[in-house]
Design goal:
single chain, about 160 residues, alpha+beta, Gyrase A, domain 2, six-stranded mixed β-sheet, about 35% helix
C-alpha cells in the first residue's frame, strides 16, 4: 500500500524554508517569499523601516528579535522586491548562523510573523507559475541539487 501526501499550494501564502542543508554549519540561509513578506520580516527585524525602504537587491545587516525584544540572531538580509527574485514575488533571504537551535528559533519567529513552512519544491513552483523559469529549468533545479558527481552536475547546469 502506498500513501500519497495531500499537498495544497496557495501562492498567496507567505512561505519560509531553510535553503541550505539541515545540519550544523557556520552559516545557513532561510528563504522567505510571498506578497507582503518584506513587511512580515520587518516585524521581527531590528530596523524595520530600513528594511521597508530598502531598494531591491540590497543586503542589510541587523538582528532578528523576539516580540519581547530579545535578540534571536545577528543576520544579513537579502531583499528582493516583486519581479527581482527567484520566484518573481517579494522575497527576503535571511543569512544567519548555522546552529540548529538558532535556525529553529528563526523558523518559529517567522511562523509567528505569518509565514508557513514551504512545501518541498514550492519556491520552484512559484518561479515556474510566475514565468521566471520554464519546466525544463524547474526540472534541472532538482537535478542540480541531487547531483552526486561533477558530470551529473555539469549536465544539469546545461
Amino acid at each position: 500500500m502506498s500513501v500519497v501526501k495531500d499537498i495544497h499550494y496557495d501562492t498567496d501564502d507567505l512561505i519560509a524554508a531553510l535553503a541550505t542543508p539541515w545540519g550544523e554549519s557556520a552559516l545557513a540561509v532561510v528563504r522567505t517569499g510571498g506578497e507582503g513578506c518584506i513587511d512580515a520580516v520587518a516585524k521581527v527585524f531590528s530596523d524595520p523601516e530600513k528594511l521597508r525602504q530598502a531598494k531591491s537587491n540590497t543586503l542589510l545587516y541587523g538582528s532578528l528579535r523576539e516580540p519581547s525584544g530579545d535578540e534571536v540572531d545577528q543576520v544579513v538580509l537579502g531583499l528582493y522586491r516583486q519581479g527581482h527574485g527567484y520566484t518573481g514575488q517579494e522575497s527576503v533571504e535571511i543569512y544567519c548562523h548555522g546552529s540548529l537551535p538558532g535556525i529553529e528559533r528563526i523558523m518559529e519567529l517567522l511562523r509567528g510573523a505569518g509565514f508557513r513552512d514551504a512545501q518541498p519544491g514550492e519556491f520552484s513552483l512559484r518561479s515556474f507559475l510566475n514565468g521566471r523559469i520554464d519546466l525544463t529549468r524547474a526540472e534541472a533545479v532538482q537535478e542540480i541539487v541531487s547531483a552526486k558527481t561533477r558530470k551529473a552536475q555539469s549536465l544539469a547546469l546545461g
